[in-house]
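Quarterly update, task 2.4: magnesium ion-bound model.
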Amino acid sequence: MRLKNFIYLFIPVLVTCQEAKDTEIWGPVPEEVYTISDSAPPTDAIILFDGSDLSKWKPRWGKDRSEWQINKDGSVTVVFDDTGGIETKENFGSVQLHVEWKTSEDTSFTNQKRSNSGVFLQGRYEIQILDSYKSPTYVNGQAGSVYKQYIPLVNASRKPGEWQSYDIIFDAPKFNSDGKKIKSGYFTVFHNGVLIHNHVEILGTTENVGLPKNISHGDGPIALQNHCCSQISFRNIWVRELN
Ligand code: MG
């Protein structure tokens, strides 16, 4: 029998001998985790703030103090009087992060002055927090923007004074021993459960003036900004490490 004829006759037979179980993978079995609601922390989450204290956090941004006020309802409020921001004592790589936040009902300020805050991953890459409910500003600086890098796909902002959430999947960039970036970082972000960034490539550090920078670093803290000018509150902050 010629080789060509052999292939035509027997390869289909071999293929049809396959069974479903040949492509079934039975292990390792994924770890079981449970959620009570969409915002309650999964059982494998690290709780960063549950309303009781700020023991997982320390002051940030050049200030020795941060007078963040813990409220009876399990939230913490920042009063914008030059008190500085806060950052986690622990450093993180790639993470899934859940943060709930509420902008001020005081709408006397406009543009970037309405409860301007932000969530910084590895202390460098900001997802903007701002009152962007019918409050115009530059779109790459509105709520949910990867600040000055990516405009959110939609504006999912709720009214001032209503609780909102970010669920952030942060894939950390990697640098080699020479300080060269060998893998970009990425953000996928949900705002109030709505996808606003779908695996966008982080261009570099968040810069208000000038272009993003790519300076070698390792793991870093999660930081909450105290920027300007009306109050911002947070609650229910948890993180899952993805490394
Ligand atoms: Mg900000």
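Highlight for this quarter: Residues 56 and 170 are 20 Å apart (CA to CA).
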